[in-house]
């Protein structure tokens, strides 16, 4: 049981996809204009993540190494289409609010990253729990960013007015620049804690950022580390 | 003609793909350390998006709509893009080794660039025709090129600046992006 809980803790804290790995940035910044959108996006991504992790793990001995990327993409895209159709049928308001970002879950690096890094090597149950952990980590991160943006930019939380009526909403926080500012500030605060606890661990060779990673940047980083050491 | 120019400028500057729509943030944050690599990435994206939006439009109009399979658009488009990237990579390797060397590392990354799939899907959503789709694709990718090159310029200039501990790395890049996004909202009055 312990290893399952460890997977969930890993997703929420140790390897939080948004704050630690900094992957899957597009939906993180785009849909966090309100808390309800953020939670909706987080849960949709989590559903796709759990199902695709489970299926890819079940198929891990069938899919050969050379064609694994196309195979992963087909699995992920199918689940995304299912989630899209379900949302369209049962929660049309959320479907309209998230718009194009629902089909774009396909290219969310978190899902592809977990499929490649974890699900294709682990047992089905562990892979599913990894999906739950990562999905929860992503949902929590999105909700946090969404809370700050909605509170500051609109004076509300989940649609209810929280700030006193004297407070004039700072409109920029629900617009594009606010997303960058809030995420930057949160990561800076987390970095501050890390420096304080002096527990900042460096990831060897790769920062886990699969989309931003190229062979170039990986080798750059290795050289940087060598130079630092 | 005037409509096309407006669409191009709108896609490139007013609704900048990275700074106002948040497509393609991963390469924007990940591959923007040097102007040279950023420009290569931008050009590779320009190349792929232009072809992808043309092909996606043709497949949508002539295959998916007649067969009544439009709900499969996400799967079909992502497979088309993945295959296209692979094909472009092989084609460049044979025909233009110089360009392949310059773009080589970045090509596989483009599959997971949400801008490509985003353009293909928004073309369908906005019901653009073939020419409009291609123009929208070019405009969007020009916007990406502009944004990533400016970002790389800023990061090159500030690489050796002293930054307070917690703000080192990603936070300072995000704040720079925020300032760029504010500047780009100035284009809103353009059309």
Account of the protein in words:
The complex is a heterodimer of chains A (229) and B (191). With 229 residues, chain A is mainly α. Chain A is 66% helix and 2% strand. Chain A has nine helices and two strands. Chain A has helices spanning 2-14, 25-30, 35-58, 68-90, 92-98, 109-119, 124-154, 176-197, 215-228; strands at residues 156-157, 160-161. Chain A has a two-stranded antiparallel sheet. Chain B has one domain (8-190). Helix content of chain B is 75%, strand content 0%. Chain B is built from nine helices and no strands. Chain B has helices spanning 2-14, 25-30, 35-67, 73-95, 97-103, 107-110, 114-125, 130-158, 170-185.
Quick summary of this structure?
The complex is a heterodimer of chains A (229) and B (191). With 229 residues, chain A is an all-alpha fold.
The portion of residues forming beta strands of chain A comes to under 5%
- Mean model confidence by pLDDT of chain A: 84
Number of helices of chain A: 9
State the low-pLDDT regions of chain A, or none: 202-220
- Structural class category of chain A: mainly alpha
Total tally of structural domains of chain A: 2
Shape of chain B: globular
Portion of residues in beta strands of chain B equals under 5%
Per the principal axes of the C-alpha atoms, what is the gross shape of chain A? globular
What is the domain tally of chain B?
1
Biggest interface goes to: A-B, 53 and 52 residues
The structural class of chain B is mainly alpha
User: Alpha-carbon distance between the termini of chain A?
Assistant: 39 Å
Topology:
The complex is a heterodimer of chains A (229) and B (191).
Chain A: H1 2-14, H2 25-30, H3 35-58, H4 68-90, H5 92-98, H6 109-119, H7 124-154, E1 156-157, E2 160-161, H8 176-197, H9 215-228
Antiparallel strand pairs in A: 1-2
Helix pairs in contact in A: 1-7, 3-4, 3-6, 3-7, 4-5, 4-6, 6-7, 7-8
Chain B: H1 2-14, H2 25-30, H3 35-67, H4 73-95, H5 97-103, H6 107-110, H7 114-125, H8 130-158, H9 170-185
């Amino acid at each position: 049981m312990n290893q399952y809980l460890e997977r969930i803790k890993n997703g929420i804290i140790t390897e939080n996809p948004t704050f630690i790995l900094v992957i899957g940035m597009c939906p993180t910044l785009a849909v966090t204009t309100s808390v309800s959108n953020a939670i909706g996006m987080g849960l949709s991504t989590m559903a796709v993540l759990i199902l695709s992790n489970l299926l890819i793990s079940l198929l891990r001995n069938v899919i050969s190494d050379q064609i694994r990327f196309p195979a992963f993409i087909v699995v992920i895209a199918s689940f995304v289409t299912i989630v899209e159709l379900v949302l369209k049928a049962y929660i049309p308001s959320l479907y309209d609010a998230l718009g194009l970002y629902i089909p774009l879950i396909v290219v969310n690096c978190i899902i592809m990253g977990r499929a490649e890094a974890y699900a294709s090597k682990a047992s089905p149950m562990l892979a599913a729990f990894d999906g739950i952990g990562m999905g929860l980590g992503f949902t929590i991160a999105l909700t946090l960013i969404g809370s700050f943006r909605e509170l500051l930019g609109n004076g509300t939380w989940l649609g209810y007015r929280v700030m006193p009526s004297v407070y004039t909403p700072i409109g920029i926080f629900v617009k594009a620049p606010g997303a960058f500012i809030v995420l930057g500030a949160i990561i800076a605060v987390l970095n501050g804690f890390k420096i304080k606890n002096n527990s900042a661990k460096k990831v060897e060779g790769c920062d886990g950022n699969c989309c931003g990673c190229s062979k170039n940047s990986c080798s750059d980083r290795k050289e940087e580390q060598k130079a630092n050491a | 003609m005037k409509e096309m120019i407006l669409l191009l400028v709108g896609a490139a500057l007013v609704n900048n793909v990275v700074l106002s729509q948040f497509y393609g943030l991963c390469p924007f944050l990940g591959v923007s350390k040097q102007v040279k690599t950023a420009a290569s990435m931008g050009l590779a994206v320009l190349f792929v998006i232009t072809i992808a939006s043309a092909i996606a439009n043709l497949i949508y109009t002539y295959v998916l709509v007649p067969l009544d399979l439009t709900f499969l658009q996400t799967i079909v488009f992502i497979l088309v893009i993945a295959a296209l990237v692979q094909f472009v990579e092989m084609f460049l390797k044979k025909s233009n080794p110089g360009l392949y060397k310059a773009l080589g590392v970045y090509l596989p990354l483009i599959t997971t660039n949400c801008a490509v799939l985003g353009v293909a899907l928004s073309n369908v959503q906005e019901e653009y025709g073939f020419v409009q789709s291609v123009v929208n694709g070019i405009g969007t990718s020009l916007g990406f090129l502009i944004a990533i090159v400016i970002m790389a310029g800023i990061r090159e200039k500030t690489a050796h600046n002293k930054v307070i501990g917690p703000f080192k790395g990603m936070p300072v890049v995000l704040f720079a992006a925020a300032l760029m996004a504010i500047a780009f909202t100035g284009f809103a009055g353009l059309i």
